[in-house]
Amino acid sequence: MKLATTFKEREEYDNKAYLYAILQSLELLERAFFRDSITQEEYSSACAKFISQYKSVSRVLEKSVPDVSLFAQEYKLDCPAALARLEIGIPSTIENPNPVGSEAINAKVVAEVVQNYITVMDSIKLSMVAVDNLHPLLGELMQSLGNLNILPPTFQGKAKIREWLILLNKLKASDDLDEDQIRQLSFDLEQSYNDFIRLLG
């Protein structure tokens, strides 16, 4: 049975096969990490690679596969962990790193958190609001917040940053945030930063 009659059709089938393989592989990787079958370093490296590959293939397939969860349903893929990981676009070890324990290290992590907040807010003030600029900065901020063991579970800053990471991950790398999004992100970051400073006081 011949699936494709033209080179373009064949290439689309190949790209869909790559997407299918990435989803399956990422699902297995997430499950292995949940079960503690691989180290954090192995997980982080492989997960970042799969996320990067996914972004590349999804750009090529953006017209025929506008929604990866519908693609998974259509091809009867059971991959909830992979879909959740792709939604946020960063490995779990960055989203939820192991908190650091000692007070001396906590002081260093607090300084990193403050530095990361200021870096993201300055980037916005300098109109550097492209997705490929903001996503890594917010990822670093999320990681430094996760490294801090003094944050209460009710701290809303992490939830807001996670929401922004998910939103940015749905956009193209070259997209810029519009005026409303810039204003909302600035507001959310400022509020989160002020809440963080109040927690320290």
UniProtKB/TrEMBL annotation:
* A molecular function GO annotation: protein-containing complex binding
One GO biological-process annotation of the entry reads: protein transport to vacuole involved in ubiquitin-dependent protein catabolic process via the multivesicular body sorting pathway
Ranges of residues in domain VPS28 C-terminal: 105-201
Matches recorded under SUPFAM superfamilies: Endosomal sorting complex assembly domain (SSF140111), VPS28 C-terminal domain-like (SSF140427)
The subcellular localization recorded is:
Late endosome membrane
Taxonomic lineage is:
Eukaryota, Fungi, Fungi incertae sedis, Zoopagomycota, Kickxellomycotina
Primary site of residence: membrane
Topology of the protein relative to the lipid bilayer:
Peripheral membrane protein
Q: What is this protein called?
A: Vacuolar protein sorting-associated protein 28
Which is one Gene Ontology cellular component term of this protein?
Answer: late endosome membrane
Q: Which residues form the VPS28 N-terminal domain?
A: 1-96
Family indicated by similarity: Belongs to the VPS28 family.
Organism of derivation: Smittium mucronatum
Known role:
Component of the ESCRT-I complex (endosomal sorting complex required for transport I), a regulator of vesicular trafficking process.
Q: Name one Pfam family in it.
A: VPS28
Q: Which of UniProt's keywords are assigned here? A: Endosome, Protein transport, Transport
